[in-house]
Amino acid sequence: MSQVRVRFAPSPTGSFHLGSARTALFNWLYARHTGGTFVLRVEDTDKERNTPEALDVLLRGMRWLGLDWDEGPEVGGDYGPYFQSERRAIYDEYLQKLWAADRVYEKDGAVFFRLEGERYTEYDEYKKAEIEKVRAKPQVIDDAVRGVVERAEERDFVIVRSNGEPVFHLVNVVDDIAMGITHVIRGEDHLSNTTKHCELFQAFGAPLPKFAHIPMILSSTGPGKMSKRGDGVHVEDYERRHFLPYGLVNFLALLGWNAKDDQELFTLAELIERFDLPGIQKGNARFDEKKLSHVNTEQIRRLPLGEFAALAQPILEAAGVAIDDVNYMNAVLKLSQEKVRSLEELPGFVAYFFDDNFNFDEKAGERIFKKGEPLDRLAEVKEILSAVVDWSAEMLDRTFMDLASAKGHEKPFAWFPITRFAVSGVSGGPDLIPMLAMMGKERVLSRMEAFPSRYTV
RNA sequence: GUCCCGUUCGUCUAGCCCGGUCAGGACACAGGGUUUUCAUCCCUGCAACAGGGGUUCGAAUCCCCUACGGGACGCCA
Asked: Which end of chain A has fewer surrounding CB within 10 Å, N or C?
């Protein structure tokens, strides 16, 4: 079997929509799965909308997601150029073939593709006009997702505008032929266009690629496709919110595809290994950010500590967390990785580790001071902790146990809330004993020392 | 309006091709447990075959109709 060649052919608009990203991902995964080639072709024929900035958003988004292309902008390839705006000569050349075969004609300055079949006129309810139609032979599309789809195109269509610019249908097909594309994986919104494309492939005497029309992603709120505006629908939004690129990738893969068993979390290698066209869903999917967050959290937990730290450090620094000891930071991150739900909330989750002037959570304080004599308890803890020489988790654990039994308690839990609050200002976080061990004796004791003056009920 | 595609828990989905399972999993939600913890983790629960006709001993699975959803019908891509 010949090598698979797939392409992602976006039109840069200034943002990278999640729906486009998923189309890119499915193409990329299929290429990687089959050992084929992933082509990035920029459909920038609409001069109004396409700017260098828009292209940059797109390329940056692709790289951020890890969707590297084998041919395309900045990497080149044997089938270039990869910008449609630079392929004009090729379109003209193909257009000549259609003229020679008498499959096109000019009308109102535009070039129309001529369908073959009996012609008739009919009043069209949609166009609100009497128009010419053609009884063309239905095109039979053997779609990898939908099976056999039959549809006839019933009107000649424009392939070159009166201003001389070739239209999407033409350039798309010409490029797919010229670039040797074997599989066209794209959104279902193109299924109806496919009959036009088949007509063109045939007029050029080119074999049809294998089509795979993937379901749409619907808005989680309103009706219709996922909105083109607003936050939460663009790749850039998730990059800004410090989502893990692979968390988004894993989630996107699940939107319209599944592995046919119960596995949902994959390593990249597993995803590439298991992805295939038959696993693609027919029905449209609705975007659910809660599930995205869940997948993102799970992927964060699976990160090797080194990678987690490499991602976390710049985020912490950008949030104003002063890191002067990398070993200490790594220790903090090690304790936090399994507890935190996103990189976005990480700075808030760990800030107190790095700043002795941390804030106190009002509600947590109120709860703690509602019962007992927390200040007395804190004094007791401070006293026994200052005597600890071997500042290890094991020793601290034993020290707290000793305190508890000396006071007639079975467990030292009664001393925990105020201890945590005094050294962190909050009521939750990593497990207390390992956390104290990691913070070090000096920091813990000085924070407990400062507590009564820093916090007043 | 015409044509095309689709329809299983609130959401993502398995099962459908090759009829027979308490219709399975995940997210969310609810309750319980663990925990110093409005974190994590564990357990339990909730909850679906769009409707109607067939075919069949038996249908989520096959056929037909209806409804609903999505898409296309641009000299946008």
From this structure: N
Q: CB-based contacts of A210: which residues, under 8 Å, 6+ apart?
A: A142, A144, A182, A183, A184
- Is A229 a residue whose pLDDT tops 60? no
A193 HSE (CA, 13 A, CB side): 16
The amino acid present at A146, given as its one-letter code, is: R
What's the alpha-carbon Rg for chain A, to the nearest Å? 31
Q: Which nt has its C1' nearest the CA of A162? A: B75
Residue nearest to nucleotide B12 (CA to C1'): A255
Q: Which two tokens stand for residue A179?
A: 């670039």
What domains can be seen in chain A, in order of their start residue? 5-216 (3.40.50.620), 235-301 (1.10.1160.10), 303-354 (1.10.8), 362-454 (1.10.10.350)
Q: What is the pLDDT of residues A146-183, one digit of tens each?
A: 999 999 999 999 999 999 999 999 999 999 999 999 99
Token reading at A16: 């990278």
Q: How far is it, in rounded angstroms, from Cα A305 to Cα A287?
A: 30
- Protein-to-nucleotide distance from the CA of A412 to the C1' of B32, whole angstroms: 25
Q: Which residues of A does the annotation mark as catalytic?
A: 228
Q: Model ipTM? A: 0.93
Q: Which helix (H) or strand (E) holds A286?
A: strand A285-286
Distance A170 CA to B3 C1' (A): 22
* Torsion angles phi and psi, residue A108, rounded to 5: 55, 30
Predicted local distance difference test score (pLDDT) of residue A343: 94
**Number of neighbouring beta carbons within 10 Å of residue A210:** 17
Which amino acid appears at position A372 of this protein? G
Please give the Cα distance from A349 to A14 (Å, whole number).
33
